[in-house]
Amino acid sequence: xxxxxxxxxxxxxxxxxxxxxxxxxxxxxxxxxxxxxxxxxxxxxxxxxxxxxxxxxxxxxxxxxxxxxxxxxxxxxxxxxxxxxxxxxxxxxxxxxxxxxxxxxxxxxxxxxxxxxxxxxxxxxxxxxxxxxxxxxxxxxxxxxxxxxxxxxxxxxxxxxxxxxxxxxxxxxxxxxxxxxxxxxxxxxxxxxxxxxxxxxxxxxxxxxxxxxxxxxxxxxxxxxxxxxxxxxxxxxxxxxxxxxxxxxxxxxxxxxxxxxxxxxxxxxxxxxxxxxxxxxxxxxxxxxxxxxxxxxxxxxxxxxxxxxxxxxxxxxxxxxxxxxxxxxxxxxxxxxxxxxxxxxxxxxxxxxxxxxxxxxxxxxxx
Amino acid sequence: xxxxxxxxxxxxxxxxxxxxxxxxxxxxxxxxxxxxxxxxxxxxxxxxxxxxxxxxxxxxxxxxxxxxxxxxxxxxxxxxxxxxxxxxxxxxxxxxxxxxxxxxxxxxxxxxxxxxxxxxxxxxxxxxxxxxxxxxxxxxxxxxxxxxxxxxxxxxxxxxxxxxxxxxxxxxxxxxxxxxxxxxxxxxxxxxxxxxxxxxxxxxxxxxxxxxxxxxxxxxxxxxxxxxxxxxxxxxxxxxxxxxxxxxxxxxxxxxxxxxxxxxxxxxxxxxxxxxxxxxxxxxxxxxxxxxxxxxxxxxxxxxxxxxxxxxxxxxxxxxxxxxxxxxxxxxxxxxxxxxxxxxxxxxxxxxxxxxxxxxxxxxxxx
DNA sequence: CTGTTAGCGCTTTCAT
DNA sequence: ATGAAAGCGCTAACAG
Lengths: 367, 367
Prior knowledge:
The structure is a homodimer.
Chain A: H1 23-30, H2 34-41, H3 50-63, H4 69-76, E1 81-86, H5 92-108, E2 111-116, H6 121-133, E3 138-141, E4 161-164, E5 174-178, H7 180-193, E6 198-203, H8 210-224, E7 230-235, H9 241-256, E8 276-280, H10 283-297, E9 305-310, H11 314-319, E10 322-325, H12 328-343, E11 352-355, E12 358-360
Parallel strand pairs in A: 1-2, 1-3, 3-4, 4-5, 5-11, 6-7, 6-8, 8-9, 9-10
Antiparallel strand pairs in A: 10-12
Helix pairs in contact in A: 1-2, 1-3, 5-12, 7-8
Chain B binds a DNA duplex through helix 2 and helix 4.
């Protein structure tokens, strides 16, 4: 099943509107050769008599001429297109990174070809292929699980690429993302300071996602220094409803312990602060947890469990959830800058750019 | 100030990786002519001896050849690219519509060129221009305030286009969106049934956005039938913080009336249901309102005001807000189908496709 | 069945 | 200062 637009399949020819003016039309209209028009288009005014220049200007105006980028790209060998592969646009993180990318593209004169894998590994591969087919000059990849190393192991042939948030196994390319270790430390320190006696890190399946792996590891490392506080990691697979429910149920179990009033009686609310805190590995996880807790314990759930989450979506403020905000726009911007340098020929070793996160304290951790 | 990637500015030539194989390379490698390769690429197997076909296959494989879409497009006159102009990707509505668009593109063999205006009218114009420069075959527009009618007034020259959610003044093109009138009726009927004595419709500046205008009008119309319930419309300009604060303050005024306990004392909560309900014109408005109410009255704000909102973002479930969900993906899908027909030459009069919304009742309206 | 020959719209020597 | 001609990579007649 081909789900990504494959190379123009045997398509029937199609009627075109009154056909756009071409450079030849303009040349004729201006009574000159195509060369001069081209020169005009490329701003080589120093080699154009004011008179000719004016005629060209007029002709272009009259014909509402727009140079065809495809043709230019074909001739020049560069088309100023870069691919932006996003794992999941429904995650605000992605949208924000995208904004940074767009800003940088504008500044550097690129046009981002945005591809949304919508969490489907298969899509991802197809899009990557498609991008090379459109001869993008480079790709920014927020990978899902890219297998094929159709990407450029910095230096070797292949298409220049920079990774965002996560590495791609076996691919030695530039990478920009959050300083996960520091961010985790920021989070655990906060939780510890709040006096929780048990902290469980909740994360989506992390084997194949480097950022998640690092967060998990960093969490475990950080907690090793305070053995008196119980630390654990729970996997919450958002793509698998049954598994997710089970994980959530397990979480309930832990929460239930040490809190022995009837969870169905909202009036019997805790007065003592919660003993356990959940540390969500990203916003989607936090959302799922909050939804679940809210359904199970009612709006007062924060009296029973602490919650800290990576990412800082708009709703976190509304729900009063403490978060670790990522410098998303900066990440996107930086990624394009890196890519630009690569496109321009930079051949240094792969670089790693980690930006710091920021802790936003709210009610969910006993604010 | 040029903020959108302008046509490849006088850019310096750049080093290209080991250069990708071209059709000529493949022809040579396979010991045949380019024509046969082209035929192979286009699936005209019936005119290729099995032997030659195999040789070509091998050559392509060996050279890791990928046909250049730009070149194909140039020759063919169609490049299977369509533009998707989005007013604001940070609005979940847009992302969801986009998902529908992507799905349809995959099905129909198009590649969407996504342009994000990020709420800046200027950007919008530039992107539109850029899109024509890349010779997209059509555009799907979720407009912000397109001025230039560079779009195709169905039938006339110009680029085929279909509008999403909102019309573009003076442009007679296909349009697909929500059945706003029915949706508003759904909402007001619900609010009325809940017994609110006053309902105020809160909406972003609506002069230039058809969907908002229609919602406002429909609301006023609907409320005319029940003169005993006070109805009003308040504009909340999210782009202007001062104006927004003022509007919110005005809202507080109304809410305050008839509820005379200390808003700072959470224990003195109302027992009687709220007399007034807010009807948010879209999700961003609802978010702003919720944030404000939450800050002012605390988590218990729903005991003082009812809230109903257009759009159904994920956080609405968490916050327990009653919403009117739009068939977003269907809208996106449909838009592409319409556009496809236009591209294929359909020249009928402009069509209007309005899809029904769905009321999702939650706690915020006295659930 | 297969290859030759023109271009698509644009840029770029190379002359003039 | 200006233009003619040769392609960029590919497709599409038109011959064999």
